[in-house]
Write a structure and sequence with these properties.
- The chain is of the alpha/beta class and 285 residues long.
- The chain has a single domain (7-282), classed as NAD(P)-binding Rossmann-like Domain (Rossmann fold).
- The chain contains ten helices and 13 strands.
- It has helices spanning 16-27, 42-49, 62-68, 86-104, 124-139, 184-196, 215-226, 243-252, 262-268, 275-282, and strands at residues 7-11, 31-36, 53-56, 74-78, 108-112, 143-148, 150-151, 159-160, 167-171, 179-182, 205-208, 211-213, 230-234.
- The protein has a seven-stranded parallel sheet, with helices on both faces. Strands 7-10-12 form a three-stranded mixed sheet.
- The longest helix has 19 residues, at 86-104.
- Belongs to the NmrA-type oxidoreductase family.
- InterPro entries: NAD(P)-bd_dom_sf (IPR036291), NmrA-like (IPR008030), NmrA-like_oxidored (IPR051164).
- Residues 7-254 form the NmrA-like domain.
Length: 285
């Protein structure tokens, strides 16, 4: 693969993963075209201030997406079921991205999927990403699949009573089962490294994680940060919420679930964060 010299399109650049990828690329001196719905959004303006080119790309208007990919050398994309259109909407977005990348002659596409996507988990929002992966592969687009594990960011919503003496972390999975996790900023760093040099992932896919902790170990990290006792409380899978989340936490509860290549993750992202390091920077109790 030749060195990166052209423009990289970043789909969803004002979102968590897209924003992290765009910032990592800009920090490396790469020309970034940030694909956004609303260029006046503060997050879009912040990217522009950092040197990104803004391009409007509205998935309800495929022509705008095609225009945004014009002249792009490589691209980063992710899809989500949280757009209000569920997993079918996510699949349709992925198909549109792949078709546009193909017609634009994109040299390499990095698609942020999910850990375990290729292992037929039966989890709806994992299966939707698997279908996008398969579509990209069948089109013959040169691509790398970055497959993140559980986000550190999601753990903050599982914490309760941190103002009291009894700090509790609750998850719908048993204690003693390690959960692989990663920071969103590290997803961006890995994606940027692959976009700059896709040969660093010779298999074409990498499952990534920065840490692996049980529920009690997660609680201990929170406790150290807050300088007070903390404990883990295992909830039943039914407490996870909808069928999708219940399926995911049931999968977590039966190892092996995630199977990240932590050595390759660290090689791609030398600043890879443990959960404790990330929490020290992101949470002030």
């Amino acid at each position: 693969m030749v060195a990166l010299s052209g423009v990289v399109a970043v789909v969803g650049a004002t979102g968590q993963q897209g924003g992290a990828t765009a910032r990592a690329l800009l920090s490396a001196g790469v020309a970034v075209r940030a694909l956004v719905r609303d260029p006046q959004k503060p997050a879009a303006q912040a990217l522009a201030a950092d040197g990104a080119e803004l391009a409007i790309a509205d998935f309800d208007d495929p022509a705008s997406v095609r225009m945004a990919f014009d002249g792009v050398e490589r691209a980063f994309a992710m899809t989500t079921m949280t757009s209000g259109r569920g997993t079918e909407g996510e699949i349709n977005d992925g198909i549109l991205i792949a078709d546009v990348a193909k017609s634009a002659g994109v040299e390499h596409l990095v698609y942020s999927s999910v850990g375990g996507a290729e292992r037929h988990t039966g989890i709806p929002h994992f299966e939707s990403k698997r279908r996008v992966e398969e579509y990209i592969k069948n089109l013959g687009i040169p691509a790398t699949y970055v497959r993140p594990t559980f986000f550190y960011d999601n753990l903050l919503s599982q914490l309760s009573n941190f103002e009291a003496s009894d700090m509790v972390v609750r998850l719908p999975m048993p204690d003693g089962v390690p959960l692989q996790m990663v920071a969103v900023s590290d997803i961006g760093a890995v994606a940027a490294a692959v976009l700059i040099d896709p040969s660093r992932v010779p298999t074409g896919a990498v499952e990534i994680a920065g840490d692996e902790l049980t529920g009690s170990q997660i609680a201990d990290v929170f406790g150290r940060r807050a300088a007070q006792p903390a404990r883990f409380e295992a909830l039943p899978a039914a407490a996870a919420g909808d069928d999708d989340l219940r399926a995911m936490f049931t999968w977590f509860s039966t190892p092996p679930s995630y199977q990240a290549d932590r050595a390759l993750t660290a090689e791609l992202d030398p600043s890879l964060q443990t959960f404790e390091r990330w929490l020290d920077q992101r949470w002030n109790p």
